[in-house]
Prior knowledge:
A: 424 residues
Amino acid sequence: MSDIISQYGTIFLIMACAFGFFMAWGVGANDVANAMGTSVGAKAITIKQAIFIAMIFEFAGAYLAGGEVTSTIRSGIIDIDKAGFADSPELLVYGMLSSLLAAGIWLLIASHNGWPVSTTHSIIGAIVGFAVVGISPDAVVWSQVGSIVASWVVSPVCSGIIAFFIFRSVQKLVLDTSDPFRNAKKYVPFYIFLVGFIIAMVTLVKGLRHVGLDFSFTQSFLIATGVGIIAMVLGAWLLRAIKEDPGAGNNFHFDSVEKVFGVLMIFTACSMAFAHGSNDVANAIGPLAAVNGVVNSGGEFASQSGLPLWILLLGGGGIVAGLAMWGYKVIATIGRNITELTPSRGFAAELAAATTVVVASGTGIPVSTTHTLVGAVLGVGLARGIGALNLNVVSRIFLSWVVTLPVGAAISIVFFLLFKAIFS
Amino acid sequence: MSTPLSALFGRSPIRPIQEHMAIAHHCVELLGQFLEASFVRDWDKALAVQQEIQRQENLADDLKSNVRTNLPKSLFLPVSRTDLLELLHTQDKLANRAKDVAGLMLGRRMEVPDSLVEEVREYYKESLMASTQALKVINELDELLETGFRGKEVELVESLINELDDLEHQTDVSQVKLRAKLFALEGTLPAVNVMFLYKVIDQIGGLADVSESVGARLLLLIAR
């Protein structure tokens, strides 16, 4: 057994909690804004409603669908046997602590300067960094890292393609018809059904064993259909109140139509928050869970240990705190800047991004919600749906990947060596 | 504060292009007031109107260069960037033509013979109708964007452009008639005046031609 773990175990755990909370706070303050900003910008929901939705669905997403990504971050990137953690488990603790701290600091610097970095990329860069330098390049499961990095390209492309086809279907069924308003009222409930069904289906198929529910595929299908129908009924009830207003917007006949899509966007906003919770919360609590696992077992590294609820609560709490303290400002800023994205477009982008992210969460791959959303918006743009898109952002995002990985790694290495010098 | 998502959205050129067209059309409208003033030889009033046209034309120019500078190559648009700029250029010509007519007539204190006034007035009104129709077409741009430049809205715009073509054709017919009438009067008028009257008639008809080109440019924009 490791002396260091038994000696400093509590301190390590407190530090991990603090850093994890800090990281979750950063995610809540900054990252959630991108997920919710589209809905606010499209005036489908107010900022207060956005925060309320984010709090509930971020947490639900993290709790119900976040387990896979958490376990990838916790134990999927580093090969436990090759890293020699059996002999010196404290190295893993140092590494995870420095990763959290490095990613948190880098995010703080980046968001202060307005760089489009992603929490996911920062934490992966940091973990890989400390593992390569602090332990050995062999300790990294490169195939896993490779597939994660590949997913960063695949996920925006995927959501872009989905968004393109969703928006094309909206054009075909609603916008390009002779009576867009009537068709909007007719088809929007089906889109609402789709939102509820897809999110529920992916979550259920992935499995809810950790909350004590285990369904077969057929059961999952039936339950997801039920969720979809409930959402649809709720949506139909909300839609009843919307009447066509021939006087509204003399210059623009589509005002009433967009109001109908505004209702749809309430649902996609929920799904977006759920998707974000299922993927990004893991960035903060994955390393924390790893530290907790090592400390609790007194140095034994048990990769299969379950995720305690309090860790999840801490992550969720951090996000909510970040949202409440700082996130609403960012949501307001984004909301003001993206008025170009009307509800009929915003929903297509959000549904595509949410679907992609939830599928990635189900397979345990950490992706960037923001970048996935950017891909989806580009998809809507390709369907000739948006007035002007600034393609410079794409190259800036690409540049931020190239920078984030080594910088995240470098900061994490510095802290790793520091912790090692202090405690060992 | 900027995030990748908010930085993604560029400034859409659609609204400024519509504003530009509204100003260009306003220049054509003002030309009507100018003509009325010149018909009654009220050159003070004519000067005032001409200066207002000039001011509006400058406004249109500013707006045009503003759109151009905000349309970098890195901007991803639902329609071709060159087509959009050509459309803007054509709209700008409308304002320029109106300014030219007013400038020429004011400079020479041109007097339209009383027997021609009614015809010239009607002829101008037909050109104005073409310009009004062009404005109507351009005002559909935001709806076109809303439908992704597809479907029913495209059909609607195409029919508006067909009407515009008919209006332009009408001015051509009137122009032939007006010129025949002027030809009959030629002997009684100073030769130089006649020359410039032909030119003014040509330029007023040119307003309808340019309006038609605006429609044609828009058609190119939505053609796939």
